[in-house]
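Pasting two entries for a bug report.
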Amino acid sequence: MRTQQFALVNANILTMDAHESVVSALAVDGERIIARGDRDEVMMALPAGAPAYDMGGRTVLPGFIDVHTHVEFIALSRHFWHDVRGLSREAILHQIQSKCEQAEPGQWLVFQGTFGQDLPSLEELDSVAPANPVAARWTMHKFVLNSSALSASGITSQTVAPVGVRLQKDNSGRLNGVIEEGWDLVAAPDPAPGEFAEAVEETLRSLFLNNGVTTVHEIGRSTAGIRALRKLSSQGTIPRIGLLLTAAPGHQPLASAADIAFQGLGPGFGDDRLWLQGIKIFMDGGRDGAYRSDLVEQEAEQWGLLTRLYPTLVEELVRASQAGIQVCTHAIGDLAQEIAVSAIERVHEIHPDLDHRMRIEHFFNESTDTAQLERLVNAGGIAVPNPGFVFAEPDDPDRRQPPGANKYALKTLRAVQGIVPGNSDTAGAQPFTTNPWFTMKCMLELKNRNGIPINEAERLDVMGALRGFTTDAAFATRQEHDKGSLEVGKLADIIIIDEDPFTVPAEAFDTILTRVTMIGGQPVNGTMDAFSQAS
């Protein structure tokens, strides 16, 4: 398409506005929608001769928004690491041995597994990789190193773990190779900048744009990754990127909350293709490092990996809120979540009229009641659970964390909070969650990888799932005035699909294909060549 003045007609346009309006045509001028309705109405808004593309009844939706993901890690796992997700321990060891035999002595090798997988031990890794540093990752939160990797990284039993990191040991006090929340300690070299930028671009195009994602909120991992995103965004070849910088202490810290708040790096820093969305704070670790009340009776070394106390978080959130910066706090364990909720309540007490929309990531993946959620909502905060995680839940209810919790209570969340923000939150362990259609399938079914129902009573309907990646995600990222629905004045971030999602069975949702993805009225994935121009 050579012009940004055009109409889409003869379409099933799900506008996702507050009235759930469905129209047959819309018009775009520049980067924004200027009219919608029937064909005659929208053509009157365009100059004579502007093209009108006949959709042939196909469905048109707002571009999808992913509120939380880790593109850099996905790119590393796809292009530079070795995929062992789903393999048995024996098959993993065979692959590691084969790769080591092909590698130079001393060359690093990283293998990406997934949640709860049976990965090899340090001793097993040593037996097949005696001359190479090797890392096998469950997730970004937990991995195992062999002896060569520990040595190359300078990690010994005398190493004092940084705040929020755990170096696991065996009963004799020796390192067993398992590290939680400490990928920053690993000396595995990064790829060359040019190769890495190509990998980031391929990942954003094939996993996000190809599936209709027009805005990605990325948790920055490195300055090299940010440089790559800046270059790619200026070329217009990737989705819009809202960048979140992790505040120390925490994974890949790139800033402190005070630095961002007091150096003018607040709202408006950047442009509509790449901007600073906010700050990410890790209150605790992943599933095994969650700060939970049922662990505090044990020795302190076995507690969840708390990074800061309540007064520190309050100070960070208050400073950020005064600077107009959104904060997304990672909190999985019930005690970490209590600290986060209480801190947001304190922000609300200090600034009762402020629309801060402080978020708690992973909140309401598990719950016992709605009391804490109601406190969060009343204080102006937002819970952001991860419906795609249901895929990795164990078949046995007794093995789900924490035992007896209500898992992924999405219907209840929508009733109390009003939104269920869509996100993939993957760093390579589950790359398929980058496809919103897959994660919406999880919302609709709430089943694990083996088809076992996890919480059938809490499933969303199709409209609820679609809202997760459109209006809900726009509100959760404070972008509802520009994105999330197809309304006059909003950005023309648009996707075209062949099927009406309301006619697709839940179990087939992940088979829906996106024909065209537009950003600001320009096709960035797929073309309009297949659509005839209406006479």
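Entry 2 (this is the one that rendered wrong in the viewer):
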Amino acid sequence: MGRAQELFNKACESYDHAQELVKTVAESYRSAERQATGSTSFNPGITMAEFDQILQGVLLTQALVDNDFDRLERQFIDKITDHGDLLDYIRHDSKGKLSLTWDEIAWMDSETQGELIKVLPAILESRCKDFLVPFVIVEKVVDENLMKVLVNDIVEIGACLAYVDGQLDEIEPEGLKAMLDTLLLKPWREMKKNCSA
């Protein structure tokens, strides 16, 4: 088994752990909503798909930040998720105006890739807020920092991605950290603060 496959397998372990956490949080939120209101339309499967799209956005930013979107990185990001796909979401959200493949992103010049990195947070903003609601509510009930556990899993996945192309650029972890902060941690802190007020 090659080094890239070993790294991908290790990342899949962290992904499976993260997905189990997301599923548990989403199902707990659904159960609490049903108990509180007598019914619910909340779908845990959507939360799991949102996580996949957010994860791919974070990993894509990490991979693009060094201006070298390697073939192994593209495959890694495409194959790591089970329930949602960032490019399908972008296509749907833009009503088909922005239809990309992982290879097309790789073929973009570095300036266009940089523009994509800049607009990803805006594209994913509503997905992130919807995704974070169950975490904020469930964390309040169980009094645990579940987001910290999830972020640790994402960081592990990102560490595997950083090495999959055989070279580690110091800038890649910075891209991961910045995107995690923008997409998940800042909005999560804000929502927790508003929920406590």
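Dev reply: Rendering is fixed now. As a check, the viewer should reflect this: The chain has a mean pLDDT of 91.
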